[in-house]
Amino acid sequence: MSSDEADDLVFKALADSRRRRILDLLKDAPRTTGDLCERFEGVLDRCTVMQHLGVLERAGLVIARREGRSRWNYLNAGPFKDIYDRWISAYASEAVDLLARLKRDLEGPVEA
Amino acid sequence: MSSDEADDLVFKALADSRRRRILDLLKDAPRTTGDLCERFEGVLDRCTVMQHLGVLERAGLVIARREGRSRWNYLNAGPFKDIYDRWISAYASEAVDLLARLKRDLEGPVEA
């Protein structure tokens, strides 16, 4: 698979709000597939959640590990780091940090 | 437009290798539409380049500014920063940096 094809998979996987929601849930800690299905209960059926997880896994955004009868899903930060490195040059990164700091200072509490 | 719809536009715009290539060209400095068209000469015609620029602009990934007869296209780092902030938590960010440093050390020249 070429690097372009791999990137296509990443961005196509991210172009769906339900898959982005799954990644949000995996951001702070890995979760079992059962746990993820529970969180989407009434919104997505188990089969649909597993299909979305498959798309995320093929894109390399989720890494799955079997443990007994459970399947643990981990967010892979690598592709996000690649996106950041590709388009935010050192200069832009500094500028973005500066703007974020400025915004924080402007919105922060006024000191006496 | 909801935040989900805005994110859809961003990732659909990024899910095309030619649009990613345009963003690569804008990474270090803004470029005129004419300059971008020249760089794709023989690959994409002017009309196609402008269509792709339109998709990138509607997604907020490119900001365009008119100056006389030229249209200058700027990369907007904001959406990339949002992607990074959304999925790479402070903890993950540290881990990613650590791994990058480790990789660099392992691949670096052996010191005497």
Provide the fold topology.
Two copies of one chain form a homodimer.
Chain A lengths: L2 H12 L2 H10 L4 E2 H7 L6 H13 L3 E6 L2 E6 L2 H10 L2 H18 L5
Antiparallel strand pairs in A: 1-3, 2-3
Helix pairs in contact in A: 1-4
**Number of strand elements of chain A:** 3
- Gyration radius of chain A (Cα, Å) is 18 Å
Q: Return the CATH class of the domain at 3-77 in chain A.
A: Mainly Alpha
Number of helical stretches of at least 4 residues of chain A: 6
CATH architecture of the domain at 3-77 in chain A: Orthogonal Bundle
**Rounded average pLDDT of chain A:** 89
SSE run of chain A: HHEHHEEHH
User: Structural class of the secondary structure composition of chain A?
Assistant: alpha+beta
User: Going across the major beta sheet of chain A, what is the strand order?
Assistant: 1-3-2
What can be said about the biggest beta sheet of chain A?
3 strands, antiparallel
| Form type of chain A | globular
- Report the sheet-strand fraction of chain A: 5-15%
The oligomeric state is homodimer
| Low-pLDDT stretches of chain A | none
The name of the CATH topology of the domain at 3-77 in chain A is Arc Repressor Mutant, subunit A
The greatest interface between two protein chains, and residues involved on each side, is: A-B, 30 and 30 residues
General description of the model:
The structure is a homodimer of 112-residue chains. Chain A is built from 6 helices and 3 strands, in the order ααβααββαα. Chain A has 112 residues and is an alpha+beta fold. In chain A, helix 1 packs antiparallel against helix 4. The longest helix of chain A has 18 residues. The termini of chain A are far apart. At the A-B interface, helix 1, helix 2, helix 5 and helix 6 of A face helix 1, helix 2, helix 5 and helix 6 of B.
